[in-house]
Amino acid sequence: DPVIGDGASSVSMEVVNESSPKLELQVLRVSKSSQLGNGLKHGDYRRYRQYCTNRLHRIRKSIRFTCGRGKFQKRPLANALMNKNAGSKALLLPLFHAERCWSFGMELKDLESGRTSNKARRAVIRKLKKAVVYAEQLHEMCSNDIVEDRTVLESEAYLAWMKANLYLEQEDWHQSLEYFLRAKQLYEAIADALGVGHASVFASRLEEIGPSIRFCNYNLQRNQSDKPELIQLLGETGAARDLLSAKIDAALAESRKTLAQSFGSVSWCGREVAIRSEEVREAVLAAKDEQNALEQELQSSALIDASPEKKAACYDKVFIAYNEAARLVKSQLKASNEDELMRLSEDRIAEVEDLYAFVTFTRLSLTVDRNLLLVQSLHTKSAKPEDFVRLFDTLLQTVREMMELRGISDDTIATRTLEFESEGFRVNRCFHMARLYLDLKRFREACALFDHAYNLADTAISANGGAGGTRITAAEMKSLQGSCKRMKMRALSLEWSEITGLSKDVKARLDVKANGTVPKPLIDSLNETTGSTVLVQIPPLLQPVPCRPLVFDLAVDGIEFPKYETVIDVLDAANKKSTPAKVSEKAVDSKKKPTESASTEKEALEPKKSFLSRLWGGK
Question: 82 or 262, which is more confident?
Answer without folding.
Answer: 82
